[in-house]
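Entry 14. Ran structure prediction on the chain below.
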Amino acid sequence: MKRLHTAFATLCTFLLGSTLSAYAGEPIAEIPYRMDYDGWITVDVMVNGNGPYDFIIDSGATLTSAFTSLAIKENFEVNDHPPIRVLGLTDFQHLPAYSFGDLQIANQFLSDHIGVVLPDWEPLHRSPDGILGLDFLTRYAVMFNAETKTVRLYDPTNLPNEPLRKWSHAALIPDGFGQDSDNLHRIRVNIQGHRISCLLDLGASGTLLNYPALRRLFSGIRINRNSEPGFLTGTRLMSIFDDDKKARLVRITRVGIADAIWKHRTFVVFNPPIFEELGVHNKPFCLLGSDLMTERSFMLDFANERLYIDHKKSYQRAPTG
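Output, structure tokens:
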């Protein structure tokens, strides 16, 4: 009888292990994305059962927010929560808090969400409906598949073995930059043989260097021919507040993150006020945007503070709308 009990227990353990292994590393949700709005990763979000609405994924935003047009459609009401401080590329503001209700992304929810309402972009720039920020993203390990154009959300304790064991990885460093707010994340990027600390900001359609970084790299870059010394080109940098600034373009020969390499890329050089706000304006620093990242599959493993990246295969960026 004792042997029968032991055999039964062994069988149950085997069956349970088999069941669990069948679900090991499976995503909690899989969401199609597209490149839209001049270079942003865009996904469908339902708001209080309505939609879908276009939200851009922004790893440089700590809070999920909406634009005015969506707030009007959904009749968002001002909440009694204190005003919320929001950083943009060229400014920061204290904005009133609004009750959004429930946001649904695939089968995942932000329930009873409180966020801010941002002004719609000027008519020249078609506005999305909202921004999906770190308050949602950091709940998961988030994989961006450049081949299938999907975002996969994983339980941080149950990551897939494939393809991560084949990808290289770099430290994903949480940093509050001395601000009274939630952490942003930075990584170390090898630019022209120099390791530069960069804010990972998928809400930026391009990659931006500050002038201290330019001075460090000067021997390895050339100024874009459309930009003469002392002349600022018409390149537009658009923050969430739709402020446009002029900036210089430079051509970078080689960029590396872990073992992933990009060659001959154009970056913007500009000293945005946000860099002073973050206390990085006097040292080499960059803002790493979606222009590089979306050419490769990658995962943001926030819980374990790692960026995984496919260093062997690169994809052309999808056309932007």
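The CA atoms of residues 90 and 272 lie 6 Å apart. Will compare against last week's run tomorrow.
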